[in-house]
Design brief:
It is found in: Membrane. With 288 residues, this protein is an all-alpha fold. It is built from twelve helices and no strands. The chain is globular.
């Protein structure tokens, strides 16, 4: 099968975007785990710093600011649901199970959007999605020894499911944006004040450390602000279903990042599951 320059460029940009998403997870875990930062405070600083950086970029590029109608409201609500649902869920969910719920719901939401939009869905897309999701379940699903037979906490699971729907809706809306950078900037600028008020209300701790704030700003400016702008830029070419499957690589990349930067152990289970996820994604990326 011949690979065109356009297809290769799309593949590389998608890989870069997934690496940015995974970096957000690593930065979040480091800020909360190593610096004791509250997850909601991290999310609020992440959104605010991203909003400021993107606003400066928009001014410098003279793109102008535009609300964008009802679609902007949908995107902002989706972004807030993702940020706060994710933060609240990890107060009561083990990280692997949380990621499994999140990306499982993202798959359902975005595949549903693709079906409703009558997007082309070749059999390879379904097969690849099944392989990749199977690999993710193998990698992340807790065993009996992990859970000790305890039931999964309902409200954290619901919060993570809401985060998955929010991110799926945010991504689906991105397919309709003509200016990815401007759209991302407006989403962040409108969501940031609400996130700050939410952090003041829901945050467990007002304690801030320089290390935690630094990681939140890096996450906000680079891996969220610029990463989400790149995501909006490539979504029209990817389509909803391929974009959904591609995101199944994020937990795998995040775990690899944890092994590199947080001294987490490498296991054969990770190697096998990662091969299955990446293989499924490559199968799904075929157009026919």
């Amino acid at each position: 099968m011949r690979v065109t320059k356009t297809a290769m460029r799309l593949f590389l940009l998608t890989a870069l975007t997934m690496a940015a998403f995974a970096a957000n997870s690593v930065l979040n875990r480091a800020a909360v785990g190593s610096f004791g930062m509250d997850a909601i405070t991290f999310g609020a600083i992440r959104l605010t710093s991203g909003a400021l950086a993107l606003a400066l970029l928009i001014v410098w590029q003279r793109r102008g600011f535009a609300l964008g109608g009802w679609g902007r409201g949908v995107a902002v609500l989706g972004l807030l649901a993702y940020i706060f649902g994710f933060s609240l869920a990890y107060r009561g969910l083990e990280s692997g199970l949380g990621a499994l719920i999140l990306f499982g719901v993202v798959q359902i939401t975005m595949f549903g959007g693709a079906v409703l939009a009558r997007e082309e869905m070749p059999m390879a897309r379904w097969l690849g999605a099944g392989l990749a999701l199977g690999g993710l379940i193998w990698l992340l699903a807790p065993g009996a020894s992990d859970t000790g037979g305890a039931a999964v906490a309902l409200m954290p699971a619901v919060a993570m499911a809401a985060a998955g729907v929010g991110w799926g809706v945010y991504s689906l809306q991105g397919r309709q944006e003509r200016d990815a950078t401007q759209a991302t900037a407006m989403n962040f600028m409108l969501a940031a004040p609400i996130a700050l008020m939410g952090a003041l209300w829901m945050s467990d701790s007002a304690a801030l450390s320089m290390g935690g704030v630094t990681l939140a700003v890096i996450s906000g400016v680079l891996t969220s602000g610029m990463g989400y702008a790149l995501w909006y830029a490539i979504l029209p070419a990817l389509g909803a279903s391929r974009a959904a499957v591609a995101q199944l690589t994020v937990p795998v990349i995040a775990m690899a990042g944890g092994m590199l930067f947080l001294a987490e152990p490498l296991t054969w289970r990770f190697v096998g599951a990662a091969a299955l996820v990446i293989g499924g994604v490559l199968v799904s990326m075929r157009r026919a």
